[in-house]
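Lab notebook page, bench 4
Experiment: in silico fold of construct C2
Operator: M.H.
Input chain length: 406 residues
Purpose: comparison with the prior construct
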Amino acid sequence: MVWGFIGLRYSLDRKADHLLAFLSRLSTAGLVLGVALLVVVLSVMNGFDREMRERILSLVPHVTVKPWSAEENWDAMAQTARQQPGVAAVAPFIEFPAMLSRGRSMEPALVYGVDAAVEDRVSGLGRFVDLPRLSQTSEQVAPVIIGAGLAKLLGVAVGDSLNLVTPASAQQSSNVSFNRLEVVDVLDSGTEIDQRLVLMDLYAARATGVDPVIGLRVSVEDVFSARTIAWELRNQLGFHYQYSDWTSQLGNLYHAIQMSRNLVVVMLLAVVAVAVFNIVSTLVMVVHEKESDIAILRSQGATPGQIIKTFLLYGAVIGLIGVLAGGVLGALGAWAITDIVAWIERAAGIQFLQGDVYPITYLPSDLRMEDWLMVCGVSYLICLLATLYPAWRAASVQPAAVLSYR
């Protein structure tokens, strides 16, 4: 296959015109950069999606059911909820806002009372802290687990004491109630809940004077069916309960991640298209430079189809080199981006993702083979389509018109 040999020789020729060689390398470098960026950014967006589903949604309630009155029998509610299709587990909880104070420092917090014996069934908190420590209660002090961000603001560590300040109940004479707490563990999940969460034993939290009602935290098998299951629970339990699901708090964030992912793909494919346009320009200049060679081949019997195949192979080799190099570079970048960003943060003493602004405090990455193949395949297809015009120009060269001026 003579046309294949000629195409490979053109694409790998190191003695070509210096300007053309420079432009060819520049266009190939642009393609490498575009493909690598697309792979890395897609991996980062996939990482956010993974952390959203596997980490954040394992810590926040999928569905909550809270009665309006403290006299409601939460155990009967739990029995009904467990029978609902799609419900994985049920656990009681108490939730109320409060203030934490230590010395002159005072910070707002969200107190979350849990039953340490069953909390692991409905949440992933047990992966980060030792929940059974909450059961070691005493009359003088209540053990608590606080978020890492909150601990940093208050300047406390494991073993330190602080005060829980809550509104007093109607039976108390003062306006606020103070309860002594001891920090037994620090929650460092890398998510925004580290900034305000305080974990207490369920009944210790109920005895703080706020007198909150006990609700149910419901874990579902499919997190995306949480809204449907909440509605079905409403039909089963009645409308005199408060119902909520994770989509009311984090649904917009999840959809924003998905939309941003699609927009980023379109934008970076435009970068790849610009790099491919540079390859087209280079190939057109190559056709112009090689007009005499093309004319000689035509005069010796080469058909227009063979000329087209020659330059298609020329563009295909350039595109293949650029796409594979970009794919490999992007895969390496996606694999190392989390550690690279963490190293930059430590070296510069800054944090790019603040826990009080973003749902997680680090840059995740999740390289997926299907995305890598899609990026490389689409980019290479664009390169092949881009070579059609230069190849057609080469096949349109008239041997008599060219050789008559040589």
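Observations: Confidence is low (pLDDT under 50) at residues 1-8. The two ends are 28 Å apart (CA to CA).
Next step: discuss at group meeting.
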